[in-house]
Amino acid sequence: MLLQRTRRRPRNLRLLHLVPNFFTILGLCAGLTGIRYALDGRWELAVTFIVVAGVFDGLDGRSARMLKLTSKLGAELDSLADFLSFGVAPAVIVYLWTLRDVQGFGWALAMLFATCCALRLARFNSELEKPDRPRWTLHFFTGIPAPAAAGLALLPMMMSFANAPAFVQGWWLNAALISFVACMMVSRVPTFSVKRLRVRRDLVLPTLLASGLAIAFAVAQPWLMLSLTGLAYLAAIPFGVMAARRMRQEEEARSGAAVESANGAVPEAGGRPPEPGRIVSLEPRQAKQP
Length: 290
Known about the structure:
Largest sheet: 2 strands, antiparallel
């Protein structure tokens, strides 16, 4: 009797399963388009496409979590797209805008920013495989995430669009800022993560009202709103460090108390600790009657 081997046909994927990857590719294309407009000297369009890439980056992660679709291909594609849109593109845009005034030094800073972004993304992917991370780290990023770093690198340019003083276009300010952000990307400094923020029930209505006002202000004055958001993010970094330190100390105190309670049981006579589930009497034992 001959046994016929049947090959399993690969199961076809529904188009809905490709939605996260579509958003990732759109973000990558937006980053490339930002470089194209920077080469043409159309700075507002260049920065706009970096912001659009950030929106697509948020949508691909959100859609993947909602659809419960995770794959190795999607993770690698997302990292490559983030490196181009938030590492290479902002560095090239800032260089063409002002850092090329110092030529080789400015290009070295642009390469530093792109390199730190690549290192950060590689470290982020490696840390995803560590399931035993402390609980307090779920509320914070380690260093500045790549999309936020791109926005901070472009912050002086956005401020210039909002009629800020002329000094924001100085190469020295942009050089200092891009160096600081590059170092923060690969640092261990904890920064706030909005993914775990929760709103109390009694603050839902005020939060919605504030969000509506913020959206209206962003529509009326987009560059001013983005500039204020970037400045607020910079100002929040020290508070994130203090909040992370407090949460880490509280978690360590709870774990230490749990260990002490586990090791603080009264030992039996003879020096042996009580067996699990065994009740130990604290009353003195009486001598046995003959």
